[in-house]
Design a protein that fits this description.
Its main location: membrane. GO terms for molecular function: glycosyltransferase activity. Belongs to the glycosyltransferase GT106 family. It is globular, with a radius of gyration of 32 Å. The longest helix is centred in the first third of the chain and has 43 residues. The strands form 3 sheets. Strands 2, 3, 4, 5, 6 and 7 form a 6-stranded parallel sheet that branches. Strands 10-9-8-11-12 form a 5-stranded parallel sheet, covered by helices on one side. β11, α18 and β12 form a beta-alpha-beta unit. The chain contains 24 helices and 14 strands. The chain is of the alpha/beta class. The protein has 3 domains: 150 residues; 248 residues, no CATH class; 97 residues, no CATH class.
Length: 687
Amino acid sequence: MGGAGFAGGDGKAVVFKSKLKWVGLVGLVLSTFSLFTHFLLARYTAGTALSEYQSSITIFSWRPIFDTADLSTTIALQRRLWGPIRHLESLHPYANPRGTYPAPVLQTNGFIFVKIRGGFHEIRNSICDIVVVSRLLNATLVIPEIQSTTSSKGISTEFKSFAYLYNEDQFMSALAEDVKIVKTLPKNLKGSRRKKEIPSFKVSSTSSPYFYLHYVRPVLTRHSVVEIVISDGGCLQPVLPPNLEEYQRLRCRVAFHALRLRDEVQELATKILYRLRASGRPFIAYDPGMTRDALAYFGCAELFQDVHTELIQHKRAWMLKRGIVKGNLSVDSAKQRLNGLCPLMPEEVGIILRAYGYSRNTIIYVSGGEVFGGQKKLIPLHAMFENVVDRTLLSMPWELNKMYGREANLVDKSPKMSPPAKEETKVGAWKTSGPRPRPLPPPPARPKTYHIEGWWGWVAESDNEPESTVMELRTNAHKLLWEAIDYTICVEADVFIPGFDRDGKGNPNFASLVMGNRLYQSAASKTYRFDRKEIAKLLEEIRDQFYQANHTWITSVRRHLRRNLVDGLTKESTRSKPLSFLSFPVPECSCSKINSTKVSSHASSPSSNSQFPAALGAIHQCPSWMNGDMVPGPRGDESEEDLDEDDSSSIGLLFRQSSENREGGGEMSNKEDTQIEDQEELEGGER
């Protein structure tokens, strides 16, 4: 009996243990399923954008952290740093036709097939120009072919040239009332193109309407198709006669409305912009403009060191040989810099921003597909500002790969070692001449071997730059996408700062295109148009003590930046607009939405400012349907100088001045501040 009871107890214990095992197994399965679900959500849920950003990799040991916004400083300081430009608040975009503008006719003179070469800003300018040319010639435009994004460049086969960068359907629908556009040539003309029987024109950015009307149109009418090759960043002169002003507005409609980025590119740009604004704080977009071509064109090689100087000089020699640039190979870069012909270094831009009042935790987005000199040149900027980020820090690798599409695997073969030197054939005369024993011939030269990494490795081996590999061509196509993302972010930024505004041909560059778009879309947003010559002089004054500037120097910097917010438009209109209309699309593409009664009430005041800077020209009044929210006119009782409040207490911290110097000179500093403020108010009243 006792044994049977004991056996029954053992059976119950075994059953109980087996149940525990099943419960544990079920719990383990559920835990695994839960973890798997969380991983999927963390990877594909859009709401976890910030966590994805925090898991990205940076080359620095620290990570910029976007703290909660702290806007406890005074309103005047915030307005000076981030507020709109009052003189431009009533300027609004308006690119619609304003006169008689008939729709395109169904029967056109023929087809225009276009090939475009160049970088992002050159492609954008060229597309706008060719649309205007098609309208001028009453021709049907075939979707332009961008040479940098063809299938031969190793990119994904999912996209075809133009569609790699822009949305074709949006482009065609937005311009339906302006130009007839088709995706491909008719079949009969495709055969002629393959046989190279289509007449071709290689045009420049200064081609006139007369050239197209009297030389291209007769050929177009005769052959029903012409091919236009654009490699100069445009195909029509920037400034058109007054009777063609509607064509200027057509340029604006193309650039700012029809050219929408491909959905995948636009989606990633929007995500990055969201991550930048997630902290609730404004941010600065900074484009260094430091490209190898621009540095070579303007002779700025001596601002760099070692291999970078060699690369710039090699490019300049190449430009001199082809007549792109005139002058000598060796140029005094220091003199060029003082004349404002070289880019501002990131360190110099950082010092100017700190002097103006931007705090150490300001968010700065660095744009640009190429920053010549690499991250080494950005280290001083990182030291002055904690939150310096770029596209790579705000996106994940899989997001970039999704944007690129499916691409074939390309493996760069490792550079082959130099072949061993061939043993020289012994000269017959040496074999037979002279008594024996004869001296031995010199040993063969040892083969030269280099252990070089990077795309610049050829500099140590050859005087000629090698042809680009398929991998490099693919990277160049990727750079267009990177610049497209940067373009979107720079246009939407609260503040934009260009380090340089010229490209490798002396024409307006990416930054100029951004400034033109911001002037059209949101003219009152802060865009600093530096006078680099004046900035170079200011920096030379403190060259020996870069981080210990006095209050007088800082006041000079602030006064210069404030004045150039408006006065810089005058220089921009004379320097950039004759070379690129999109860099300064006013007054043709803008209108004034202002309360005329308030303007007239201030007009009698002798101290009132003019409504708009003279550089903007005659601004038309906006149509009545846009006057829902009237913008008050400029206030004459407030000067822009008044926004420069005395925040000198933070200057010592920004420029590492000792507390002893600040305490000892406190009384003198207050007197100096008062004198400077009085002088600025007097100057503001005189203007």
